[in-house]
Specification:
Aspartate Aminotransferase, domain 1; Aspartate Aminotransferase, domain 2; seven-stranded mixed sheet; 16 helices
Amino acid sequence: MQNRNSASARDAKYMIHGYCDLATQRNKGPSVISGGKGIFVYDENGTPFLEGAAGMWCTAFGFGDEELIQAAVEQLHRLPYYHTLAYKSVNPAIDLSERLSEIVPIDEAKVHFALSGSEANDFLIKFTRYYNNALGREKKKKIISRVNGFHGATIGAASLTGIPVSHEAFDLPIPGIVHVSEPNWLHNSQPGESKTEYASRLAHELEDIILREGPDTIAGFIAEPITGAGGVIIPPDTYYEKIQKVLDSYDIMFFADEVICGFGRTGNMWGCETMGIRPNTMTLAKALTSAYQPLSALVIDKEFYSGIEMGCNKIGYFGHGTTYGGHPVACAVALKVIELFEQRNMLSHIAQVSKHFKSKIMEFKDHPLVGDVRCKGLLGAIELAEDKKRGKFFSPDGLIAKRVKDRAEERYKLIFRQAPCGDTCAFSPPLIINEEEITEMFKRFRKALDEVSSELHQEGVIEL
């Protein structure tokens, strides 16, 4: 019986959590994490867990990095808070916007700060409407997103998100959001269709939807370079080239959601570089501060900014802002993150260890319970299948991946992400992980996977 005064019991009594079954959360209580160091976190009993998901895809430098902590402490002493509204600013926000403008693949970029990826994507919707109103294009407001893409939890960002459970009972999506097929060749290709042919079909689908809705009504297309929470879906090689061509033909902007893919996760500094995307805007968060402080950024190109300023000139006021946007402590930490990326040669480190990551994750391709393995940089997924030879997946989906996840966490002290779509086990460890730790991570996963696989065989669910 749970101690009613324990942290877990008090949490269950007073807190509302997201992305869980509320009754289970209330009755069982959460795992309470009380500390962390490197790639490990510790529960309230001091038990170490190998964090194979970097929290929520975000703790790039792991836990307890003294330089990041010191950057926050120093800024707290210097200026713990001030706003960036109404003709005021703070030095860390100025310095960070300058550094980001220098390193993003957008010329003459302008930066607007927020607190979360959700907020940044929500503000993108607002800015897009303002921009097109300024240009006299009152109908050009719709944004095309993808099924199973994830862009956040606010009303606007959750509408961009293409995961059904994020819409159900919330009266979402809001008007003006249109969803197209995700680039998931494994599940959605037609018999005998090559990846190149599949990419061409999705480009045609996009064009058909643009023509159906009216090109003069479509403002932008938003996508994660590699879909994260939707199952680590890596599009076919020719996909973005074909998508970009369609967008360019109809004067539609490409909105790149780099919240998960940015800052080295895919092997390059930006997922756009890895996947060959030419973005008009980028939304950044998570690894921007290695999650040591809440911060996000909306980065827009010169043309987008010019339109917004034009609209402001007409109205005389830009009626948007937040209390904590450009918070000096968060910006100071983000500046230190960018500094450490350079000082510690993080991209070289990622290039080296990602080879080992790929080698170890690909060892699961022949496992009887595994239907697919995919990875890019230090982002990977192992998707489970009932019968891989016949391409048969579990129905209802998600139950088996959850069983493996629970077993890994409870018995082998390994944390990874279970995607809300399909039976996918996703890995995105802290970028500081080394080869020995990668080996240990997948060793623990294999033990959990083998146990569940054996049990499913005994239950008559699968054949070995």
